[in-house]
Amino acid sequence: MQKPSSLVLLGAVLVVSACARPTTVVTPPTPMVAPPAIVAGLPAVPAVRGAPIDVRVRYPAENQLLTSRDSNFVLGSIGTGDVSLTINGQAVPVAPNGAFLAWLPNPPAGALRYDVVVARTADTVRRTVKVRLPVRTTLPGSGKLRVDSGSVLPVRGMWAKRDDYVRVSLRAPANAIVMVQGSDSVLRPLVRGTGLTAAPTVPAGDGNGDANRDDMSSVFSTDLAARLLADSARAPRLVAIRGADTVRLAVPIIRALPADTRVLAMLRSTSTIGSDTDRVVNARTIVDGTYKWMLLNGTIVEVTGRAQGYTRIRLDGTLDVWVDNNDLVLLPEGAAMPRRVTGGFRVTPSAEWVDVAISTGDRPAHLVEPDGRTLVLTLYGVQANPEISPIFGNDTLVRRISWDQVTSDRVRITLTLSQPVFGWQSIWDDSRRQFVLRVRRPPLIDAANPLRGLTIAVDPGHPPAGATGPTGLYEGDAVFPVGEQVAALLRARGANVVMTRTSLAPVGLTERGVTARRANAHAFISIHLNALPDGVNPFTANGTSTLFYHQNSEPLARPVQDELMKRFGLRDLGVHYQNLAVARPTWYPSALAEGLFLMLPEQEAAMRDAGFQRKYAEGLVVGLERYFRIFAPVLQP
């Protein structure tokens, strides 16, 4: 385990990916040199004329399952721009380089395909792409009673406290009566939800049939105490009745956790990257939800439930959260919960950070929240008793510490700083049995050369995953040359550069953050291109955005977004909080730029243009300069 004295600090990080070069363009644009002034806008799409017709539909793929409700996009390329294009009889514009993007109604259930027709003078080329729509059991309002057995809740493998309420539900015809029989043999009604469930697009078992307009289903549900679903000797059942028909279904048995003892577990991240400081367990508010807590390996917690691959753990008397099943190890039956009581808060400054050490006896679950010039540390399952709190060195960064016993087992500690929060690290010092919050000092900045001497982490986004444009340009390839230009511009300004990816090969998300932390980066910036999910109109939802995770990174995201907007001239999608894996490390501020949408033909073409790549890089670097100037000393006249 890494001790406070051995923690390695990091510099700044920026993400970018490389773009493949076009092979069929006949009239490529002349590469631009850095202009003396900012010129907003995208370069012209290079024209391809007279090339062979080569129809390639990038999305949807053959037999793709469409998840949209009524409309969806189709994108791809034809290899040449001097053609006309229709898809399912509707005219679709073709870009000068042969790329296309269409927004079309979903095909009817009886003809689940896109018929692509390309024409040039006497030549006609046809291509058909078959697709699928979601399949669901049809439940008519008459005839023999049928219910959807695949909709039964709860699912197998669920754990709960005996008095926890568990959702029991079933999709059945709206004119049926649905009840649940618990282990006490009592029949209790399930209540039909408001409104009928929309008819499925495709009936069960037929991906190409007509939509069944006879579906009259609804979801019936109730909440039942787990103890009534936990007796295997008297297994619970769902009962659906309509007229003389009755359908009975078994309800999966719930494991009811004991009411008189605790089930304890130790958190243990499955990651093998970095040290224990890097390997945190991410906890969420709901099953498969967004991350909120980054808990230390070795923290002992109470288990209060399990569902769908996640385990519910108790942080204190009023807060339960969810972690992946693989991120904990159950302790032997009868294991006791450690008592966590704080001593004094010991503040020890050093050249690059300030350590606030809190003796707790055992690792506590915790949350750190930055807010301007304050850091708020919440310790769960802890009682505070800080009689003496020495502050050494008369430190200029941590100006005040206050604490509050919010509940009987939750402590809130507020650190008031002399400067905006820059970075921090949560560490467990096993030798002293102390939780250490290491608060990083902002770097010393020269306003005239704000990046000189800093370490910046440049992160070309993807692979793995990533978007692909109409002509096949992959996001990971497209942003890589932008990252290389960012690195060159940073070095020219006197910065040290750490690239999280130095080739087109995949690099894991966790590895990127570990690389930056070990390099003691002062900032992390990630370079990406955007795409949309099924059912979102790309012609009205595209633009430029910059994302952050921790609040202390928002001041970095804003000038980056501003500089990209000046250069691109696209729709301003703004600065947003988003739960981003590469932005979760806390030692430095991080921002992730989504410069444009790779799925649009003219924006994909721009990412093949060396001049536009430089424009993207310049926006990121100037945004970094503007951010770091806020830490430069103000000279008095």
TrEMBL record:
It catalyses: Hydrolyzes the link between N-acetylmuramoyl residues and L-amino acid residues in certain cell-wall glycopeptides. The keyword Signal applies. Residues 1-20 form the signal peptide. GO terms for biological process: peptidoglycan catabolic process. It is an enzyme of class 3 (hydrolase). PROSITE patterns: PROKAR_LIPOPROTEIN. Its EC number is 3.5.1.28. One of its GO terms (cellular component) is outer membrane-bounded periplasmic space. Residues 515-625 form the MurNAc-LAA domain. Keywords: Hydrolase, Signal. SMART domains: Ami_3. It holds the Pfam family Amidase_3. InterPro entries: MurNAc-LAA_cat, N-acetylmuramoyl_amidase_3. GO terms for molecular function: N-acetylmuramoyl-L-alanine amidase activity. PANTHER family: N-ACETYLMURAMOYL-L-ALANINE AMIDASE, N-ACETYLMURAMOYL-L-ALANINE AMIDASE AMIC. This is N-acetylmuramoyl-L-alanine amidase. It comes from Gemmatimonas groenlandica.
